[in-house]
Design goal:
mainly alpha, globular, DUF479 domain-containing protein
């Protein structure tokens, strides 16, 4: 799941460090795909750091339930098939595109139906002290946090997730993600055709998308 979908499960929490932990694995991956940390079983004397770890573990559980669900398998495969004609000639792997596109559409639906407020999410991140985050990263084995903090500060200041509420921006967001792997993933024509597919798929998913959140919430109770 993407940032805002992870936030949904803890949208009522007042613990900013827990909220940060629920999205930190993806923040680190976006900052530098070579950063690999495994703090899952660590315990620290600072409870704020333990809250980050708890949020991190929540992230892993949510992703595990999501990616093993019939919802994900069915809809990502369907979306992949529908996007194939739109990206003919693109180097992007269709399965990757279907996977990421589904996650972005779900984030869009959360925003446009008012299930979450993106400003609340950013407010939580702004409430976390950099010294605590740096200690968590060091404690987890990251020796140099320079690249992460540069990305993280840009992520907070740009408030880019607001654009996920605009359906026509989903193809652009997909391009930005794909550019981390492929230098020129899509042409302007690709993007225009993708937008048509994504808009149609979003409308088809509108009445049913909350079912996956209810399914995951029922499974989280047992862990």
């Amino acid at each position: 799941m993407n940032f805002l979908s992870h936030y949904y499960f803890d949208r009522h929490s007042n613990n900013c460090y827990h909220i940060l932990g629920t999205v930190l694995p993806d923040l680190l991956k976006n900052a530098d795909k070579n950063i690999i940390l495994h703090p899952e079983k660590l315990q620290h004397s600072n409870q704020n750091i333990n809250s980050i770890i708890a949020g991190w573990n929540k992230h892993l559980a949510v992703d595990r339930f999501f990616h093993s669900s019939d919802f994900f398998v069915t809809h990502s495969h369907e979306l992949k098939k529908k996007l194939l004609p739109a990206i003919e000639g693109s180097p992007v792997k269709p399965f990757f595109l279907g996977h990421i596109a589904l996650e972005l559409i779900i984030d869009n639906l959360l925003l446009t139906t008012g299930k979450i407020q993106v400003d609340d999410f950013y407010a939580h991140l702004s409430g976390c002290e950099s010294t605590v985050i740096a200690e968590f990263l060091s404690f987890s084995g990251l020796k140099d946090n320079t690249r992460f903090f540069k990305f993280y500060e840009d992520f907070k200041s740009s408030k880019y997730l607001h654009t996920y509420a605009e359906t026509h921006q989903i193809a652009y967001a997909l391009k930005r993600i794909c550019m981390r792997i492929w230098q020129t993933p899509f042409t302007a024509q690709h993007e225009a055709q993708m937008n048509e597919v994504l808009d149609s798929f979003r409308n088809d998913l509108f009445n049913n998308f909350m079912s996956i959140f209810k399914e995951i919430e029922s499974k989280l109770i047992d862990i």
